[in-house]
Sequence to fold (179 residues):
Amino acid sequence: MDVGFEDQGKTTRAAIAVLEFPSLELVAQAIARLPTSFPYVPGLLSFREIPAVLAALEKLESLPDLLLCDGQGLAHPRRFGIACHLGVLTNIPAIGVAKTRLIGSFGPVPEEKGGWAPLMDKEEQIGAVLRSRTGTKPLFISAGHRIGLESAIHYVMACTPKYRLPETTRQAHRLASGL
Fold:
């Protein structure tokens, strides 16, 4: 999924791309635009984005079996990022796949594809810092709902055959951007 804002933040736009696994072929897509109903509050972004995401999911003939969310899961100050929030509301397993770190610390991440380091907050492992491509910036992976971290890493790697971001995220962004 990809969520963005139009009209200087007055409209929330959510795009969903459903890919067949493991081929990663696009099989369904949907876009929803709704008036933005929640202000921007750091740490509560899911409340701003979820209504449009749910509206886009409702447009699909069938729901996906797994959600890869462009954002955090447990790697969130409240341990409840958008992947957790959306997963609980839909009861679909969900993974947080973020481009940047929100909280936590980590040690060196191996440079090769598939290398990762634990993402820690205090003494709790809240995710993984994953190198999806050799020599690129890592992604921040965290469990969202009904999935463990090892499985989350497995699915993210399986969905990143060529690029840094999972194909699900890339396809949803293309759809949302009209590319």
